[in-house]
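Need residues for this backbone.
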C-alpha cells in the first residue's frame, strides 16, 4: 500500500538510522522523561537486584514439585540471585543440581515477573517466577507438569515486548549479540524511532522550517492506523 503521508514522513524512518538511548532525550525533554520514568512501561525489564530492593526475596524460597520429582530453590547472595533445580534420591542425596544466576527480570510486578538466565549469549527462562497476587515465588507458567529446567529459550518477541532495545541474532532462537539487552525499560525510541538524526539536528540548533520537526516520529502526526500499531497507542502525558 503506498504511503499517502510521504510528504511529512518522519525522516528517521529511513534505513540505517541509529538509536541513541533515552538518556539523550532527557537533556532536552526533561519533564517528559521525568514523568515517564515513573511508569510501569519504563521499568518493564529489571536487573535482578531490583527483586531484593522490592523486598520480594527476604527469605530463601524452597519447594518440591511432585509431578516432575524436582526440588526448587531460590536465594540471594549480595546483589546476585540464584535459582536451582535439583533431584534427590531415596537417601536424600542429590542426583543432580542445576544452579543458575539470574540475568534479567521480565515484568514489573503489576501482575508478576519472570526471571531470565544467560549462558554465553543465550537467554533462557528460569523455572521460578514471582506472583504478585500471592506475593510469592512459584513455578513459572507451564513448569508444573513439564520438567523444562533452564532449557526454554527466550524468543526475540518475548524480550522485545518487554524491554527497550534488544539485540537478537536473526534466525537463532535464544541467541543474542552482547549485550542482549541494551536498554531495559520500554524506551522513548520504541515509539519515536531512532533518535540520532533528531538529536544531531536539535543539538546543532538547526532552525525548524514551519512548526513541525520531522526528524523524529511524532505518533500524533501519523495516520491513525499506523499510530494504533505503536505500542497499542500508549502515550505519556505531562499534565
Ligand atoms: C538537543 C535537544 C534535544 C534532544 C537531545 C532531543 N530533543 Fe526532541 N525536540 C527538541 C526540540 C527543540 C523540539 C521541538 C520543540 C518541541 O516540540 O519541544 C523537539 C521535538 C521533539 C518531538 C516532536 C516532533 C514534532 O515536531 O512533531 C519528539 C517526538 C521528540 N522531540 C522526541 C525526542 C526523543 C525521543 C529524543 C531522544 C532520542 C529527543 N527528542 C531528544 C530538542 C531535543
Ligand atoms: C506481543 C507482546 C508480548 C510478548 C511476545 C510477551 N509478552 Fe508478556 N506481556 C505483554 C503485555 C502487553 C503484558 C501485560 C502488561 C501488564 O498488564 O503488565 C504482559 C505481561 C507479562 C507479565 C506480567 C508483567 C507485570 O508487569 O505484571 C510477565 C511476567 C510477562 N508478560 C512475561 C513474558 C515472558 C517471559 C514472555 C516470553 C516468553 C512474554 N511475556 C511475551 C506483552 C508480551
Ligand atoms: C508507548 C509509546 C511512547 C513512548 C515510550 C514515548 N512516547 Fe513520546 N509520544 C507518544 C505519543 C503517542 C505521542 C503523541 C501524542 C501525545 O502527545 O501524547 C508522543 C509525543 C511526544 C512528544 C511531542 C509532544 C509533546 O508532548 O511535547 C515528545 C517531545 C515526546 N513524545 C518525547 C518522548 C520522550 C522523551 C520519551 C521517553 C522518555 C517518549 N516520548 C516515550 C508515545 C510514546
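Answer:
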Amino acid at each position: 500500500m503506498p504511503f499517502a503521508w510521504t510528504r511529512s514522513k518522519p525522516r528517521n524512518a529511513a534505513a540505517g538510522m541509529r538509536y541513541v538511548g533515552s538518556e539523550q532525550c532527557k537533556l532536552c525533554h526533561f519533564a517528559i522523561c521525568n514523568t515517564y520514568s515513573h511508569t510501569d512501561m519504563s521499568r518493564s525489564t529489571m536487573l535482578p537486584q531490583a527483586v531484593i530492593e522490592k523486598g520480594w526475596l527476604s527469605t530463601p524460597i524452597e519447594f518440591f514439585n511432585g509431578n516432575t520429582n524436582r526440588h526448587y530453590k531460590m536465594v540471594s547472595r549480595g546483589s546476585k540471585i540464584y535459582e536451582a533445580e535439583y533431584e534427590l534420591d531415596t537417601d536424600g542425596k542429590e542426583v543432580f543440581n542445576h544452579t543458575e544466576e539470574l540475568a534479567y527480570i521480565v515484568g514489573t510486578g503489576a501482575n508478576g515477573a519472570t526471571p531470565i538466565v544467560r549462558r554465553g549469549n543465550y537467554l533462557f527462562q528460569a523455572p521460578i517466577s514471582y506472583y504478585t497476587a500471592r506475593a510469592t515465588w512459584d513455578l513459572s507458567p507451564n513448569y508444573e507438569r513439564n520438567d523444562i529446567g533452564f532449557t526454554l529459550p527466550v524468543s526475540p518477541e518475548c524480550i522485545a515486548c518487554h524491554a527497550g532495545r534488544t539485540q537478537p541474532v536473526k534466525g537463532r532462537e535464544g541467541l543474542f549479540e552482547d549485550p542482549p539487552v541494551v536498554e531495559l525499560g520500554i524506551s522513548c525510541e520504541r515509539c519515536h524511532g531512532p533518535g540520532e538524526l533528531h538529536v544531531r539536528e536539535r543539538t546543532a540548533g538547526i532552525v525548524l522550517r514551519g512548526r513541525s520537526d520531522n526528524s523524529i516520529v511524532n505518533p500524533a502526526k501519523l495516520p491513525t492506523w499506523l499510530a494504533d500499531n505503536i505500542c497499542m497507542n500508549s502515550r505519556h502525558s505531562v499534565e
